[in-house]
Design brief:
The protein is of the alpha/beta class. The chain is built from 17 helices and 16 strands. Guanine binds next to helix 3.
Amino acid sequence: MTHRTVPDRLILGQILHFLDDPGEGDDPHSYAHFPQGALWIVEGRVAAVGHRRAVESAIAPERLAAAERFDYGDRLVLPGLVDTHCHYPQSAVIASFGRQLLDWLNTYTFPAEMAFRDPEVARATARYFLDRLLAHGTTTASVFATVHAASVEAFMAEADARQLRMLTGKVMMDRHAPPELCDTVADAERDCVALIERWHGRGRLRYTITPRFAPTSTSAQLALAGELYASRPDLHVQSHLAENPDEIAWVKALFPECRDYLDVYARHGLLGPRTIYGHCIHLSGAERAEMAATGTAAAFCPTSNLFLGSGFFDHAASVEAGLRVGLATDVGGGSSFSLIRTLDEAYKVSQVHRRPLSPLRAWYLATLAGARALYLDAFIGNFEAGKEADCVVLDERATPELEFRLRGVTGLAERLFALTVLGDERCVVATHVLGAPAFQR
Ligand code: GUN
Ligand code: ZN
């Protein structure tokens, strides 16, 4: 007799997942949609997906009868949403009035991050943040901690307890920040090595080398970041790039020998697979080409970019240039934990460029594109057999406005578009992690 540690699970609903980028014309071969679908999950992984009757008939009746069942009727079941750039210590900074990036950092963000020298603050905030992610349908995120090693410790422990696939790392920052938030090259090396040893590859966690951005690290510290990235397989890198004109001018003044902002990271060995940069709004053609050639990804943060007045990321042009692009809330520069609300803003930003984000492509962006941008698509992003069974269940008629808007509407693209624009976390009915319910409305 086989001994299973977790029960088999059957999730029934209207299943939608992506196999590739639908492009600007919503290529019908890029996704699979099963209006009466089933997801069969064994040991937390997708064992089968498809039409309900086909999936059920392939399972031995006694095994099917013994499985845990979740019948979501005609609710949408999508792969768990992927937030490719956010800051958990900024959970309480969301909605702080009226500044652009550098002023906002100094006025609100740095003071808030100072509180994380207290491990208790870190633990309580990590719990709050992860609970909010799950309530918003997000199951994987690339997350900035603070300069304090304890902030990573707390986040990793809470994410591990929830069995989440999460990326995080200690912020490296050895200049141009309050002294309480600065480390040194030696501190950063000691802390990063210890944290990598302890957490990288444990459960579903991976460590991310996290120099905050070029202005707050010396060249020596950026070089250390590059060495760390190269030191072990599967380490990730995250930072910020070309978000705001004043920031870009500052980088130019600090690194006059570099061709442009991207070149600062390039010269320190910080481009390549598993590296992702937040914002990437004000980039030249040469910078985009180098990101594409090296496999360096961009995190599109439309709520943050509008909130901080940073500018309009050109999603269509970036993808056309060959970049991997994921969607991101950038909490607390962003104004919501919801990737659904973030898609609404992404659509509006794409309209500025007169290349509207199409309805199917939007949901690809929030799922498989994010997994690809983080180089985690071998594990998550869709329901291919063998992948980890993280999913979100959405009620596309959760509010009176959606219900009224969608009366008589049957087409998938029209329904998804209305959900993007009118929907939000009220539409999240449930979130499953490795098949198990982790949030239920
Ligand atoms: N650039 C450097 N640090 C930050 C940050 O915390 N948030 C945002 N939006 N941009 C940054
Ligand atoms: Zn950020």
